[in-house]
Amino acid sequence: MTNEQSSASDVTASHDVNGRFATLVFERKVAAPVSTLWQAWTAPAARAVWASPSPSVTVEFLEADTRVGGREVTLCKAQGQPDIRCESGWLALEPALRSVNYEVISSEETTQSAALITSTFTELGEQSKVVVTVQLSSLAVDMEGGYREGFGAGLDNLTGVAERTMVLQRVIRAPREIVWNAWMNSETLPQWWGPEGFSCRTKRIDLREGGEWVFDMIGPDGTVFPNHHLYGEVRAHERFGYQLLWGENGPKHADAWASFEDEGAFTKVTLGMVFSAAAEFQKAKGFGAVELGLQTLGKLDRFIASS
Question: Which of 31, 83, 189, 261 has its CA 20 to 30 A from that of 298?
């Protein structure tokens, strides 16, 4: 789906007489379920993929805590220009329905703007829609043009990311600490990881921020599939992000994350993957990646139950 197909025109709802306050409305339709769009919108690993408005801008995440009361802090860096600091705070999160956050933009220790951002999500059959309303207060400079450009490009990126994102979920019949410890443990992870009939042969494993897991997946027929996971942020008992490479130091085929939430006495595990290209996403769906991934989470459930 092209941006022209997926994007509605951005609308300026109102201005004040001095032009320092504006309400901007952005709308995008996405060829993905609303549950997947929500994950792409909120999961820090996914947000890091689509946050940059252009290839010339690098976005560095200093903090990322997607929960009510949590904060996200980023630095936008472009060659020859001062860094732009963006601080956001989550005020409301209603899964697959609505989010509300504040946003403060500053540069060289001067606050440029403040905004209240309300985003609503709607299921449209096999598609979904996000409507983002920005109530903007320009402080040091007029920021409306920058917001139009930055938000428009970011939401176009979000559309592309959501359309190549795969999300798997399962409730594991154990408390969160036990589930986390079964996953982020170099002894136990290789015992259950992979679909039915597959086994792991580990070369190196270091399950911490900045660590890696180099291993082979061995299929029921003996076929060897080399893998390399590179671990980014790790928040104990909550989530971690990682990159999936085709073999040791091979090309990246996905940015991924796993998150862990209490579900009564049990734990809801969400495993998400943003594939590097739409073609890779379609290829993965074609060979049954969803079913194979759910088998993997099923093996985790049985491993914990039998431990």
Answer: 31
Class (C level, CATH) for 166-306: alpha beta
Give dist(CA 186, CA 176) in Å, integer.
Answer: 18
Classify residue 301 by its DSSP letter: H
In 3D, which of 240, 241, 216 has the Cα closest to residue 228? 216
Q: How far is the CA of 174 from the CAs of 184, 272, 306, in angstroms?
A: 15, 21, 11
pTM of the model: 0.92
How big is the chain, counted in residues?
307
**Lookup: tokens for 101:** 């956050």
Spacing of C-alpha 95 from chain mean position: 14
| 27's tokens | 């709308």
CATH homologous superfamily of 3-163 equals START domain (3.30.530.20)
Share of the chain above pLDDT 70, in %: 94
- Dihedral-angle region of residue 19 (phi above 0 means left; psi in -120 to 50 means alpha; beta otherwise): left
pLDDT band at 193 (very low <50, low <70, confident <90, very high): very high
Task: Report in angstroms the alpha-carbon separations of 185 from 189, 191, 206.
Answer: 6, 10, 9
- pLDDT, tens digit (0-9, with 9 covering 90-100), for 155-190: 999 999 999 999 999 999 999 999 999 999 999 999
CB distance 24 to 148 below 8 Å: yes
Of the candidates 266, 273, 303, 269, the one whose C-alpha atom is nearest the C-alpha of residue 290 is 273
Task: Give whole-number Cα distances, 29 to 26, 39, 50, 126, in Å.
Answer: 11, 15, 16, 11
Is-same-fold flag (3-163; 166-306)?
A: yes
Note the helical H segments in the chain. Answer: 3-6, 34-42, 44-50, 144-162, 176-183, 189-192, 278-286, 289-306
Q: How far apart are CA 53 and CA 146, in angstroms?
A: 11
For the chain, the structural domain boundaries read 3-163, 166-306
Are 295 and 196 contacting, i.e. CB atoms less than 8 angstroms apart? Answer: yes
